[in-house]
Design a protein that fits this description.
Layout (H helix, E strand, L loop, with lengths): L2 E7 L9 H16 L5 E2 L4 E6 L2 H14 L6 E8 L5 E12 L7 E11 L6 H5 L9 E5 L8 H6 L5 E4 L6 H10 L6 E3 H16 L12 E9 L3 H14 L2 E7 L3 E8 L2 E10 L4 E9 L2 E8 L2 E8 L2 E9 L5 H10 L5 H13 L3
Parallel strand pairs: 2-6, 3-4, 3-7, 4-6, 7-8, 8-9, 10-13
Antiparallel strand pairs: 1-5, 5-6, 10-14, 11-12, 12-13, 14-15, 15-16, 16-17
Length: 355
């Protein structure tokens, strides 16, 4: 048998100071209603999710709903609306779940905060009172984090990890992100997570003959992307880091961007071609040691072709499953420390997009 009980406390405050006591009272209320023992609170992290517009509000809510029971956290959901009247509204809620005959309720906590007008300039003061002190704090800022803004900078000392999606950043945002990396908390990038299947497939291709001996003889790289091109740039940055390339010429051009890397005096042209459609990498082609390797995305698969001159040497289809955002955020909550590979790739990416 499975019983569930949800209790919601609804009261508007001009601050968030009273929320902690309200969560405790609600947990007790849920346990009394189910006539069970003390409730166990499901907390692995403080997850502070901040969104700034209607589209991102809805997208974040979908992700959080999908992962709530996978990585239970004290969820602090913040909606910023500078156009709304000045003020803060806070609402605390608990969902109490009992599984089978154990009769031991598990409580999932949520604090929803809406800020209007200038209240959003004081995020640290608003968020700090509702954080569980003994748990790590993960800040997920959707869209373009306001690097350098005092409200954002004051929030960072409370944070153990910063979660963002570099795919939402333009060239200026990518350069700003690279600039703050030395002093920021460890960063987890959703775009980097989406690239993991591509990185693994490319690495596997060069781990076996004949490409294992050609890895240091790359002569050209072409990447085809749809929608925003950040992930294509980041993939190029990763290749540069792994193969010891330096940026010789930043990307320039419209739908077909051209740039170049250099290694030991040899120039390696880079072409980044953009087309319409949902953001994704469509194709990667590498010329190396006389071989031509092409990986083309086909849904959840990649067609991998290896040729030399006009001779097709091999053709195979490999899995290429791009994780959804709920999976990526769940993985981010389990990470610890800095991702040096990503930081190095992002630093190269920022140079690639320099004016």
């Amino acid at each position: 048998m499975t019983d569930s009980y949800a209790a919601t406390w609804r009261q508007t405050f001009a601050s968030t100071v009273g929320v902690e006591d309200a969560l405790t009272e609600l947990s007790c209320e849920a346990a009394r209603a189910l006539e069970v023992g003390p409730a166990a609170t499901a907390r692995m992290h403080n997850l502070v999710a901040i969104s700034t517009d209607t589209a991102s509000h809805a997208a974040v809510d979908r992700v959080l709903a999908a992962m709530a029971e996978v990585h239970p956290s004290r969820l602090v959901r913040v909606r910023l609306d500078p156009a709304a009247p000045d003020g803060v509204q806070a609402q605390a809620s608990v969902r109490c779940h009992v599984e089978g005959d154990l009769r031991c309720p598990i409580v999932y906590e949520t604090v929803e905060i809406a800020t209007g007008g200038n209240a959003g300039r004081h995020l640290a003061e608003i968020v700090a009172p509702v954080l569980e002190a003994d748990l790590p704090v993960v800040l997920w800022w959707t869209g373009h984090p306001p690097f350098g803004d005092p409200a954002f900078e004051e929030l960072l000392p409370l944070v153990d990890r910063l979660l963002l999606d570099s795919a939402a950043l333009g060239s200026t945002g990518l350069r700003a992100l690279a600039d703050v990396l030395p002093t920021s908390p460890p960063v987890v990038d959703l775009a980097w997570g989406r690239l993991r299947p591509w990185r693994e497939t490319i690495a596997a291709a060069f781990d076996h003959p004949p490409l294992d001996s050609a890895i240091r003889e790359v002569r050209a790289v072409e990447i085809d992307v749809a929608g925003a091109s950040v992930e294509g740039r980041l993939l190029a940055g990763w290749l540069a880091v792994k193969l010891g390339w330096q940026v010789a010429r930043p990307l320039a051009g419209g739908r077909v961007g051209r740039g170049a890397f250099v290694r030991s005096g040899a120039v390696i042209p880079l072409v980044l071609a953009k087309e319409d459609g949902p953001a994704a990498i469509r194709r990667l082609a590498i010329e190396a040691g006389g071989y031509h390797l092409a990986l083309t995305a086909r849904g959840d698969w990649a067609d991998v072709r290896l040729a030399r001159d006009d001779l097709l040497l091999s053709e195979q289809r490999l899995p290429l499953v791009i994780p959804d955002d709920a999976t990526l955020v769940s993985r981010a909550l389990m990470r610890g420390g800095r991702d040096r590979d990503w930081e190095a790739a992002m630093s190269v990416t920022a140079i690639l997009v320099s004016p």
